[in-house]
Structure formats: structure tokens, C-alpha cells
Amino acid sequence: MLRLSRLTRVALGIVVLSILFFMYTPLMVLILNSFNESQISGWPIDNFSTKWWEFARSYQPIRDALLNSVLVATGAMVIASVLGTLVAFAMKGFSFFGRGTVNILVVLPIALPGVVTGVAFSNTYSNFLTPMGFNIGYFGMIVAHSTFCIVMVFNNVFARLRRMNPNLQEASADLGAGLWQTFRLVTFPQFRTSFAAGALLAFALSFDEVVVTIFTAPPGVDTLPLWILKEVGRPNQASVVNVVATVVILLSLIPVYISQRLARAQEDE
Amino acid sequence: MSTKSTSKGSQPISSFLLRKPKVRLISLLTLPMTWIVGVYIVSLFLLLITAFWNVDPFTSRVRPGFTLENFIMIFTVPAYIATSIRTLFIALSVTAICVLLAVPLGIYMAKIANPRLRNFLAVAITLPLWAGYLVKIIAMRLVFTEEGFFNWFMAPFGIRGPGFSIPIVILTLTYLWFPYMALPVYTAIRQIPPNLFDASSDMGAKGFTTVYRVVIPLIVPAIIAGSVFTFSLSLGDYLAARFTGGATQMIGSIIAANINLNPPVAAAYSMIPIAFVVIYLMVARRTGSLERM
């Protein structure tokens, strides 16, 4: 055992408490400020009310932004799920030249800084595609999000496929099932939990992404984080921004929570 | 499994694919690789090409050509050099603070906390990762604003925050990326065999000596793996600087400011963080730390 004096143990405990304090205070301040009655956020909060929550619920720009966020995240999730699963199957079943490269290609879109990815897409869209007479518009945002979400689905599905018993697929083929039938009846049921977990993480990743979105959103289209970004540009933080921020926290944590539950359920199987 | 073909003729496509693993591989990879290469890698390549173009001074449109002007500018204009150095300094500071916090946290979690507390802490450290990137930046902004939580909390001690400046940017980035350091370091400390600690203390080493001489050397790969995230994510960031840094500019700020005004300059400057990240990854790879990620 690591022998540490009582004093050291206490000191370490204080460090840990400080870290937790450091990590959770800002989020608490933000969430509590969404119930701040005054228009400008600050601390301490004098009066609490749900005024800004009610305002946000009926405020059209926020509703539009929420709709956009959900649309983009759903689109990115669907595309990333298909592509990520295909790569996972290729990486699982085969050892081939360039395997490492494929791995890097999948990770690269989230490994490089968001501003580089965003600028690269923006540059392609506005300096190459538009002059060629092709305006990608709204879909450009979904394309960009799908690209960096692939890795989420890939990681989850690949981890599961590695632990799967390949004999079951062979048995299915021996019994006369075609590839599609085997996939549908034998393979997919075995990894669908990881598939769903990965897809949810992709949704969450897209939902709170902002940097790539800044550069790829068509003019006049806001996602929730983009809307926050525009509002925070002003000198004082309006309390309604904190309402939207709290919604973003909830809507990214819920998919992650479900995803964790799914992953755990699968381990118990 | 490719040798075991099904009853021939009944499912021609399946039996064909079963006999030809290469065709199967290609049909699996075609779509995703076309997407990633065709959309993303081509975009990065076009960005590199744009870095050699220039902007027509009259129409302010991007004009194809070949000029090294943009790159020369980045390496000679003092403001650009200063920004690169400042960004590097911020990213290194963030990484250093993350290590300084992660090691005691990891030791506490792995060696002092009981299993329940340990699991609680593991969740507590991971959870904020998913609370939203921009949300955390504006939360830090709220804490360190003039009428914010920090000044209120510290008022009894007569301390006032520095206002939005480089130290607050460093703190915000630490807040954003700390879990990426904390988790691998904690995992690595947990994996150290307990008898190493016994051996160390049998040989007369006190707690601190053991940490310094036994724990730290063993967790270096985990620290490097974590620093790949804390370093490269900080290096490319610019919204933390924009919202908690006052007038602080980072590499990303300049790229973002130029993408509409002067895309070639933005493109050329984008190569700096790419270069930093690639060099860092290569160094990390040489130490063999990347396999742990």
C-alpha cells in the first residue's frame, strides 16, 4: 500500500474537493442564473423566477435554433451511423494494407482543431463549390457534422465487434443464410446496443458542437450553440442565454446517459 | 469463412461475396472512404492550395495563383509571431496545470478513496465533458465577470479577480480539457501493482519519495496520452480567448477573423496548428504512449 502521512491524506482530500468545486461551480452558477429574475446575469442572485424559461419557450428564434440543432444532429447521427458501422466491419474482418491509415482518417476530423476543420469546409464551400455554381447551403453543415461524428459510432461498434463470436456468422452461412440475412438475424442483434450507444454519442457530439458550425452554417441559420454565441457577444450576459445553455446541457447529457446505460446493459448480457 | 460457400445458385451475390473477401472489403470501405477522403481530406488539401493564392485587391475575391507571401507574412509580421508564441504558451500552461491537478487526484482516487467514492469521483470527473463546450465557456465567463461569482466569493479575503485576461483563458481551457488528462492518469495509477508500493516503503521511501520515484515514472505514458488532448485542443481553441480573454488573441482568433476577409492568410495560418499537432503526435508516438488511448 502507498503509505502517506495523515497530513498528506488530508491535503490530497482538499485538492480533490477543490477540483470538484472548480468543475461544478461554473455549471451551478450558470444553471441558477437561468432562474435569475433580472435581465442581466450575475452573482449573488437577488430574485428567482422562471420568467426567462417561459420567455424562451415562446421565443421564435430559440425555437428555430432548437429545431435546427435537432435536424442537424439527427442528420449527422444517421450518416455517421452508416459510415462508422461500415468502417468498423472493414476493420474487424480484415487485415489489409493501409489499415492504420483508415484508422487515422476516421480520427482526424476530431483530432485536428475545430477551427481548422471549419475553415477547411468553409473554404471548399465558398471558394470552390460556389464559384462552380453549386451552393451547398444547409446540407453543408450536416456534411461537416457527419464527418467528425463517424469516430463515435466507429469506436463503439468496433469495440463490440472485436468481442463477438465469429463462429455464429459462419454457422449462419453454413445453414444457407445469405449475407444480408446473416447480418439482419445474427450479426445486428449482437451489436445493436453498441450501435445505438454510438449513435447517441454522435447526436450529443453534434448537438453541442459550435466551432465547425460557425464556419459551415448558411447565413441566417442558427443552431442553439450558435444562437448562444451571438447573444454572448454583448457586454453583459442576458439571463435568457443561461436558459438556452441549460437546455443544451440537458439535451447533451440525456443521450450520453442513455448511451452509458445501454453500454452497461450490454456488459451484463 | 470464405471457403465455406453456401448452396450455389440460390443466393448468387452472397456466395460470390463470401468467396471474394477483397470484394467484400472494398464494398465495405468504398462509401465511408469516399466520404472522408472526398469531403474532408480534399477540403484540407484545397485549404493548403488556397494558402498559396492571393486576394484581388480591387474585387477582394480569392484569386488562384502561386505566392509564398502568406507564409512569409506569418513568419515575419511581429503580431503573428507573438500570437503563435502566446498560443503555444497558453497550451503548454494548460497542459502543465492539468498534470499538476491530475496526479494528486489520481493518487487519491486509486489509493485512498474506497470503491464507492472512487466510482463516484470517476463519474464526477467524466460528466462535465458532456455538458457542452460553449456552455462551459460562458459559465466561466459568468464566474469571472466583474459582478460574478469569483469576486463575490473572494471579497471577504480582499481578493479581486484579474478580469478577462490570459490567466482566465488558461483557467477556462483547463476547465474544458481537464478530464482528458485526469482519466488516463487515474487509470494508469490504478494499474500500478500494489507490491511496488510495498517494496518502495520497505526500502525506506516515504510517501512523497514513492510518488516521485515510483509513481511518476510509471505514469509518464498516460500523461503524454492525456497531454495530446489538453495540448492540441487548447492550441486550436479561440472561443475561450474570445469570451474569457478580453483582448487576448490566439492562433484560432486570427484564422477565424481572416476566413472571410482574406481566406489565403487564414489558410496559411491554419497550417501552424496542424504542424504543431502533427509534431506533438509524432513525439508522443515515439514514446509509445498513443497505444494507450
TrEMBL record, chain A:
Positions of the ABC transmembrane type-1 domain: 66-259
Matching CDD domains: TM_PBP2
Keyword DNA-binding included in the entry's annotation: no
Keywords on record: Cell membrane, Membrane, Transmembrane, Transmembrane helix, Transport
Pfam families: BPD_transp_1
A GO BP entry: transmembrane transport
PROSITE patterns linked to this entry: ABC_TM1 (PS50928)
Principal subcellular localisation of the protein: membrane
Compartments where found: Cell membrane
GO (cellular component) term, any one: plasma membrane
Membrane-topology annotation of the record: Multi-pass membrane protein
Transmembrane intervals: 12-32, 65-90, 102-121, 136-158, 194-217, 237-258
Family as reported in the entry's similarity comment: Belongs to the binding-protein-dependent transport system permease family. CysTW subfamily.
Protein name: Spermidine/putrescine ABC transporter permease
Organism from which the protein derives: Actinobacteria bacterium BACL2 MAG-121220-bin52
TrEMBL record, chain B:
Transmembrane segments: 25-53, 65-82, 88-108, 120-144, 164-189, 210-233, 266-283
Pfam families (UniProt xref): BPD_transp_1
Keyword Cell membrane: yes
Domain ABC transmembrane type-1 residue range list: 84-284
Annotated compartments: Cell membrane
Annotated GO biological process: transmembrane transport
CDD domains: TM_PBP2
GO cellular component annotations of the record: plasma membrane
Domain of life: Bacteria
Topology relative to the membrane: Multi-pass membrane protein
Family from the record: Belongs to the binding-protein-dependent transport system permease family. CysTW subfamily.
Protein name as annotated: Spermidine/putrescine ABC transporter permease
